[in-house]
Amino acid sequence: MGEGPQRAALQALWPHALFVGQQRGESLATHYASADLFLFPSQTETFGNVITEAMASGLPIVAFEHAAAGQLFKAHGCGVLAPLQGEEAFVSASVALAQDAAQRRALSVAARLAAESLDWPGVVAQFEARLRQSLGEPEALSAEGPRWAQA
Question: The whole model's pTM is what?
């Protein structure tokens, strides 16, 4: 777990949990590699880099059906989505995925493959295609780019 204004309160609630603070580099990679799944409970983050980091580490993810997570998961089937403002559904999806090793393995493979398609040249090409589309160019979305952005 990271840092933040709720850290002390959370530590008081769960004294046996490890609160390791913000991680970087090899230490961050070690934390991802030691996980079975990744929970992204934010309802406000529009694009959490942690989502793509977790995907690149081959972690199945539970997130809310919102912003980047919603787009990525719908296009690639690499995570489980809970409805926005559906906190109970998020918890249920997290528990269900934690208990389903076969689904975690399938989502893990999909997450890793999806992350490999998110390179900068593809993202830039897709952005340019969206700009061309806004100018009315009919073949704008046929430009090379990540498949998730074409949804």
Answer: 0.75
The one-letter amino acid code at 55 reads M
Q: Contact at 8 Å (CB) between 99 and 37?
A: no
Give the least confident one: 4-18, 36-50, 52-66, 117-131.
117-131
- Mean pLDDT within 77-87: 91
Burial class of residue 123 (count of CB atoms within 10 Å of its CB; 0-12, 13-18, 19+): middle
Task: Evaluate whether 151 touches 130 at the Cβ level (below 8 Å).
Answer: no
The CA-CA-CA angle for residues 95, 98, 99, to 5°, reads 90
Q: How confident is the model at residue 146 (pLDDT cuts 50, 70, 90)?
A: very low
CA-to-CA dists, residue 55 to 12, 21, 132, angstroms = 31, 21, 29
